[in-house]
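Reading a protein record of the kind used here takes only a little practice. The integers have meaning only within a learned vocabulary of local backbone shapes. With that in mind, consider the following protein and its fold in token form:
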Amino acid sequence: MSRRKSNALELHIPAPRTRPGDKPDFSGWSFPEPGATPRPDVDASAGEMREFAYGLIRVLDMQGAALGPWAPNLDADTLRRGLKYMVVTRTFDDRMYRAQRQGKTSFYMQSFGEEAISVAQTMALGPDDMCFPSYRQQGILIAREYPLVEMMHQIYSNAADPIKGRQLPIMYSSKQHGFFTISGNLATQVPQAVGWAMASAYSGDTRIAAAWLGEGSTAEGDFHAAMTFASVYRAPVIINVVNNQYAISSFQGIAGGENTTFAARGIGYGVASLRVDGNDFLAVYAATQWAAERARSNLGPTLIEHFTYRGGPHSTSDDPSRYRPADEGKAWPLGDPIERLKDHLIAIGEWSDEEHRKLQEECIEYVRATGREAEKVGVLGVEGAHSRASMFEDVYEQIPWHLRVQKEEMEG
């Protein structure tokens, strides 16, 4: 009995190092210097790449210089285009967040601080590669030139909503733009992406797939099932874990981030894994380009952890001031992705502060004008935006008899 008492078991409960009211604390964190991480051959084995799951690929230093073997050597026009897409995304987010606060829609989720991930990755992928996003990758559609007004129609669930009011706001879908329907159920998109990639390979196609999920969602069974299939069948897929430090109201330690990196999830599955500075546009682009080449060469999947920070709330239903220091985002040691790409363009003589201000003003006016256009059609709650009969449409090619009877009873 005394032996049992002396060895009483204890349960570890992960807890963040800071709470509301504390000063942000990133002491003890260390990152490889920009340019210090080697770039492996595309055909390197997953075992040879083990250390890449624990480091951090960085290209841009904090003065805007691009350093090292991962620098993708993009031309200035491509960089300016990426900067514009990121600014449009942030401006769009800001207007839609305020629209929700004004009662024009029920729900919204920003990607503040994470714009480089969706935009740089989309630009590095092929235009017809299939994307299986989570709910913070609106930059994919923006970088693929999906009409902004269509996104607003979907958010407002008005009469022009391409999804006809059948999805929550921000859960877009566009087959034409290679954007798979967003699901509110966490991690379901990952096995779907792997399955799609397997089908693409099985049919002899040339397109690859990419999926995105938050670090908290790596605790879901769907993620692990997908990793098994991706590894066993060498599916041509990129699985992106966006580690923005917080799931809704809980920090990344709850999903296992205290013990190891999220990129390390791939090691046990024999999947090549990279860990990337998610606020470094060039690093994200280069890592995605590497993983895409690997997939197209029939060398299998890649897991990429994007180390970033969620600058805003999880959603309009969330209040981050209840679980983290209010000024923590400003103290984030890896900076702001838009500012860092801007600084790089200025450093190479291809941009200026004045040009950046002009871009911001143009984006504000563009989003404002688009907002006015969408709101003319209507905002959430406008009577008659979608007929009740439409609930019976677009599911079956021929409506079954029992649903046809229900529709007739409703209309009668």
Notes: The first strand starts at residue 130 and ends at 132.
